[in-house]
Amino acid sequence: MNAIELKAPPYPLDALEPHMSKSTFEYHWGKHHKTYVDNLNKQIAGKDWENKELEEIVLASWNNGSPTPEFNNAAQFGSGWAWLNSDKSGKLSISKTPNAVLPVVEGKSPILTCDVWEHAYYIDYQNRRPDFIQTFMDKLINWDMVSQRYAAAQQ
Ligand SMILES: [Fe+2]
Taking every annotated instance into account, which residue ranges of this chain make up the domain Manganese/iron superoxide dismutase C-terminal (predicted)? Predict the structure, then answer.
């Protein structure tokens, strides 16, 4: 059994059609995302991190800003993403992150994110990133979940 599991989305892969296709999920989640999970499991096999939660591995491998090789695979899900964050007082901020950096390493709680790397939208939108972002904003955000995360960030 692998230490870190590739978690399936909490809905069928075609649930967001026509706004995001099953094919996008099959490639973005089933191939790109899976590769990072598989590579992280190879890196942590037989080490103390094998029995840790993913967020613990992200924070430990961040290594106070001098990331270890494991950080790239553990946190890569944040590379090129745009974030809406909350701090413990409820103050909101928007950020973007390079090279797998996640808001959690800066002590912020992400409550909404949009992956704007090409693999997140190229099958359905080709080079039309603004169309993807507009559809994301208009059709795909679960605001109830964002509200729940916002409340949790302040506890
Ligand atoms: Fe991505």
Answer: 73-149
pLDDT of residue 3: 87
138 annotated to bind ligand: no
Q: Is 32 annotated as a binding residue?
A: no
- Name the percent of the chain in helix, strand, coil, to the closest 5: 55, 10, 35
Answer whether residue 1 shows pLDDT above 60.
no
| C-alpha 29 to ligand 1 mean position (Å) | 8
Over residues 53-67, the pLDDT tens digits come to: 999 999 999 999 999
Does 42 reside within a domain?
yes
CA–centroid distance, residue 24 to ligand 1 (Å): 10
pLDDT per position as a tens digit, 94-117: 999 888 899 999 899 999 999 999
Residue 1 lies inside a defined structural domain of this protein: no
Cα(149) to ligand 1 centroid in Å equals 21
Angstrom distances, CA of residue 4 to CA of 27, 40, 74: 19, 8, 9
Q: Identity (one letter) of the amino acid at 6?
A: L
User: Which phi and psi (to 5°) does residue 80 adopt?
Assistant: 80, 15
The range of the structural domain enclosing residue 28 comes to 22-153
